Amino acid sequence: MVILKKTYRYRAYPSQSQKSALNRQMYLSKQIYNLLLEQSQKHFKETGKTFTKYDMNKWITKLKKKNPEFNELYSQVCQNIADRVSKAYQNFFRRIKERKHGKKIKLGFPRFKSYISSLTYPQSGFKPEKKKVFISKIGRINFVNHRDMEGKIKTMAIKQTKSQEWYITFSVENEETPLFSNNKPQVGIDLGLKEYATMSDGTKIPNPRISNKSIDKLKMIQRRLSNKNKGSKNRRRAKIKLARISEHIARQRDDFLHKTSHHLVNSYSLIAYEELKIANMMKNHHLARQITDVSWGNFIQYLCYKAENAGCRVVGVNPKNTSRTCSDCGNIQDIELSERTFLCQKCGMSKDRDLNASINILTTAGLAGSNASGDVVRPQLQEAAVVESGTILGGSR
Fold first, then answer.
1. Full-prediction pTM beyond 0.85?
2. Could you tell me which of 70, 128, 394, 397 has the fewest CB atoms within 10 Å of its CB?
């Protein structure tokens, strides 16, 4: 049996006394995190061995006896902090091994934290109600229950954003739903900057250019912030204003991505996309801001997890030559980025370059032994789609 995990996020409205209690506990969490990190370093220097998560939990128990103020934290929250420190070390040693094997990455030794903005309750210490959630040692906090949760709740976290807003997040688990296909058409999708996406059936999704709508206001607040004295109340207020604008832009972007991905997975039975090296593309400083704004990585992620319940399959393909290949005859030729029309020098075919690329992406995803990477949501759905619809992958052009 396969377990599927989902996350539900809600806006929370703690009272002033609850905010004070939460901020106090976050401060104590930061203290424990830094003390654990310090103890881990000391233990390794003295013994040459790693300070295990079991050792950390035993050490926290002794710390609470010596310093009663740490008893304000729920026990599961403390265990989660130990888990964070343990994982930080595990990831550090993993990166050391990868670097020895020739991978060019930064080691990223675990650092001491200046603040912690969230509390995580991995197993217990919370109880959700209709419009409130009870949190141990905090009380019953109001939250906006805008949608019902489906599945067994496993973890809860409460977080304060930089704009001083509060959010509660629940992680739930569900059993895997039966495989099915929605019997809709198949499509290749070419992501871009001029048009956000061009589909192989000719459909185009305009680029909303979300950050452009608020860029002037954002720059004005940034200039005002830079003129404030460090440590002053005016500077803190300006930082909150800047954070609110930034979070508003992020919410607008997420809203667009969620609505677009939802529409696509319910309109097609297979969606093929290019596995772009976004980090490498970001090195072009002329396009970095625009690439950040379109957020292709999040869009693909949303497509993949929404496809689970929509009877859709999402496949990533190698992007090599998808823009340089004629979708009619297969001729490969060079084309400048400024050229928006692909004119085949062999067969004379003329198409919009993005449309031509999206057709090639769909064809590549459907070819036997193709460059399809296997980055597929529930690959068993391929067989289900073929049986139910009687079609062959890649046959729709």
1. no
2. 397
